[in-house]
Amino acid sequence: MGASAREVALRALTACARQGAWSDGFLKKALREAKLDGRDAALATRLCFGTLQNRLLLDFYLAGLCTVKLERLEEPVLECLRLGAYQILYLDRVPDRAAVCEAVALTRKVSKHPKAPGLVNGVLRNLSRQREALPEPPDDATRYSHPTWLAAAFAARLGKEGAAALMEADNSQPAACAQVNTYRFTAEQVRMELEACGVEVQLHPWMADCLLLRSTGDLERLEPFQKGAFYIQDPAAKLAVLAAEPRAGMRVLDACAAPGGKSFAAAIAMKNMGHIISCDIHPHKQQLITAGALRLGLDCIQANVWDAKVCKVSFLNEFDLVIVDVPCSGLGIIRKKPDIRYKEPTPLKNLPDVQKAILENTCRYVKPGGRLLYATCTLLERENETIVTEFLDKHKNFIAEEFQLPPPIGTAKDGILTLWPHIHGTDGFFMARLRRKEHDD
Length: 441
What we know:
Blueprint: H1 5-19, H2 23-34, H3 38-53, H4 55-63, H5 75-90, H6 96-110, H7 116-130, H8 140-143, H9 148-170, E1 176-180, H10 187-196, E2 200-203, E3 210-214, H11 223-226, E4 230-232, H12 235-244, E5 251-254, H13 261-269, E6 275-280, H14 283-296, E7 301-305, E8 319-325, H15 351-362, E9 366-376, H16 385-394, E10 398-400, E11 403-405, E12 410-412, E13 416-419, H17 421-424, E14 429-436
Parallel strand pairs: 5-6, 5-8, 6-7, 8-9
Antiparallel strand pairs: 1-3, 1-4, 2-3, 9-14, 10-14, 11-12, 13-14
Helix pairs in contact: 1-2, 1-3, 1-5, 3-5, 4-5, 5-6, 5-7, 6-7, 12-13
């Protein structure tokens, strides 16, 4: 008998804590290995993501009920407690008794300590009895399970209420977003085919050719996916491509392209006419981009291995459009990668230097009169507005350029735009559209 949904969730949580694994990547692999059906795979995903999304709050409650300090527990035992607590507090369809029994059974499997199952049983039973009288969290950082430094950074930008709304949105469960490959299919065709596969499909409320999917199971096994009818991409990333206005016949460089979504969006907007060089520093990601383009039938895309910080002489002054979606802290995609919030902040301080180096190098590849799109999936000013402002101060041959996006987004008059999960219902995303002047000053 294979692993259960709870066992798979526990393995993912433990791998995140012990090995620094990313929950989404580990979970995807673990689900395939366990061969869970669609319902159990969805439960495993919900348990893993939900527990991560609420970890600091769960720990706050558990610490008040546990006779042993949480940091002294074996990691798998602590994760069993968190899993059980999440089910008791957040999953109405799981009876408390079942949540407790499953957590105790899991504890017996992962711990050799004879007292561990009894501890888990006692703590979770107490939690169940006291669920209506639990103490108020001391602050919004605990309430929404965001580290103090991150909650403070959001509050500095948005104010207390705005930060609370953003952190609450970070803990939501967004639908998967399928961007229709309109080069070969219509949105209605794809909707009907997905529904025939048992997928729940809704049209995106304001973005054309975008479908919101639930009850998907393994999307990559579905026939519409395999024949290239769609690719998965958040509306925010697609909107960034629309802001850059790729057109048929253009020569485009996607400088930090993996896994290829922006290249695919640009190729579709260009009706597969033109040339897109789609680059990444990792060889295995080149293969991902090539495979994706082949599946979608987009032969205008050429995937290359290349370090965007290193000058490539043959690229100088060659491109109508350069897309630079730089490596970043990723704090705009916490909804989909909940464990990003728990990564140590110290290494993030070096990211602006990397981002500046990439922008300094790739700006030279834009033709006179051409465009450059700078983008990140983070919400920190030092990786976004500060980078662009300093770049424009230094490079007088570039200007920020107004662009138009579909309602309710509208016009970015100063050429710079941030999308927010709690306002726009998208990933958090920053984009700046810059134009190189026809004649350098």
